[in-house]
Amino acid sequence: MGTYIRLSVLPEEISQEDWKSVYKETVILMQAYDFAELKEKNLFDTQIPVYVKSKEHEEPSRYWETCGDLGSKKFAETFILYSDIKMYRDAAPSTYNETDILMNSESSVVVFDSKTQGYPYHLNILAIAMLIESRFPKFASVSGDIDYLQCIKAKEWADTHLSTPIKLPLRVDPQQLLKRFFPKSEREKIELIERWTIADQEKIMEIVYKNSDKETFHNWIKEKLVKYSSPTQIGAVKLLVYYLNLVKEPDSLFFMACKEEGGPKYNPEEMLRAIALTWVSIPPEKYDFLKSFRKIEGHPTIVERKFGMMVMDIKFPGREIRTYIPLTEVVEKLTSYFPDWEKKARLLLQQENSRIEEELLEFYKSIAPMLALNNKKESEGSYLDNEDAFLYFDNHSVLLTEKQDFHLKTVAFSIEKFLRKNPEIKEGLYSYEIESMKLILGEMLTEKFQMYLTEDAWLRLEGVLEEEFIITLLAKLILDDFYNFKRKTDNYKLLRGMFENKLITEKITNYRNDPEVITYIQEMIDKEKNTNRD
Apex CA 350: angle with CA 345 and CA 352, to 5°? Predict the structure, then answer.
């Protein structure tokens, strides 16, 4: 699982002169942003890989590359662009083939197909890919984990730096798509939109609704419902949610799902349970707190959020509902097709709604502390997840939660306990000159931990004169290596924060040297042990 930007081209259709001209435009965009690349620098009298600002290179031909940005200190996979079109003519055809949409007999070649993981440089790489498609609309195609609003943002940024504006990618612009291919029928139009438009399921439904006649749209939805053996399956419930958001009435839905020829002909009890799962008859104030978990158009999706949204869909398939229809009206529409069901329908829907509302209340109670943090005023400082908190903590605009601060105390305690248990290691550390410790830090971090830092982080470390600060960093690396913690994701995030953000290491160092903190953590551990014995 990842968050990608893809760009495919038909290199045989593009002249070197035209490609070079567009490449020069990409250089303007590359230089306009804080793009970063990984290069070796001489630090502490040794070569260390560090993140530096991206620039053009000469060999094997002119090119630039990037894997993140220095501002956010977030890095993912590398994107490379060459100025010589021959580099792509000599490349193997893509297994991820865009030939169909490019409408050419030859196979396309990949220029970009890497993960940004939704990090800030995602939109800027997208802008560069969009520039290339915009200049070669029939010979280049942008795709990946993108949406219409992301492309709007990317275009706005690019247009401020380029003399000629760029266009939106074909695959996020259905009107441009339909004009390009002139579908011969309503059915062909829908197939074209479904196959090539990059958008989520709800957006696709909205596009089809706006670009089709009512009968075609109705039959298309009906065909989708038929694929589900039960309307309570998650996919079917999501389909019902999107339909109700768009059409805002259940009458046609009950007809096509339960009565119409060619439809799935669900029985009324199943259909009612499915309608309950959409939350359409639950008052919105019961689930408004979930707005923090809704999809955010225009923002690249990070992997953790993708996974989290999958879990939320399973637990709360109705969370995307934006239409409210009173329970009495829902029952009335159903019983117009099933008159014998009036009393049973009302009771069943009331019971299901009550059950769902109880689940929502329990979930609210479990996440209330997190919501309280998110709702704090901007002036009080913002609270971020562990990775960002440790990277950006500044004791003013970005604060640590109590849990995050406590975690730093436990790290300080673990370092002190490790050094006390291993006096020979402690004695060895304090016997080194500070510059020698910095050299060991560089070698351990890059060779053993395979962690790379920004040039700013290393230069800041070069200027550190406090021995205890360096010992905190070195002891943490030795401890993690000793217990093989270096592969643990949360530990990796903390380590990056310790090196990139001096304030985090200063906090841990202060806690290390604070007897009250060490005693407090030890007492908590002893209390936990005694509780477990009892």
Answer: 95
d(Cα 278, Cα 272) in Å, to the nearest integer? 10
Give CA–CA dist 173/169, Å, rounded.
7
Q: Which residues pair with 144 in a beta bridge?
A: 5
Regarding whether 226 and 152 lie in a shared domain, the answer is: no
- Alpha-carbon distance of 80 to 94, in angstroms, equals 16
Dihedral of CA 361/365/370/376: which sign? positive
398-399 vs 140-144, strand pairing mode: unpaired
| Segment 107-153, tens digit of pLDDT | 789 999 999 999 999 999 999 999 999 999 999 999 999 999 999 99
Where the chain has pLDDT below 70, the residues are 1, 94-100, 103-106, 295-296, 301-311, 373-380, 532-534
Give the count of beta carbons closer than 10 Å to the beta carbon of residue 354.
12
Question: Is 94 domain-assigned?
Answer: yes
Domain end among 352, 376, 400: 376
Structure tokens at 375: 């709702």
Q: What percent of the chain has pLDDT over 70?
A: 93
Number of domains in the chain: 3
Nearest one of 275, 254, 273, 276 to 265, comparing CA atoms: 254
Find the helix or strand (DSSP H, E) in which 39 lies: strand 35-43
Classify 469 as helix, strand or coil. Answer: helix
> Which structural domain, as residue segments, surrounds residue 282?
213-376
Whether 225 and 371 share a structural domain:
yes
**Residue (of 367, 333, 459) closest to 43 by Cα position:** 459
- Where do runs of H (alpha helix) occur along 136-213? 148-159, 174-181, 186-196, 201-211
161 belongs to a structural domain:
yes
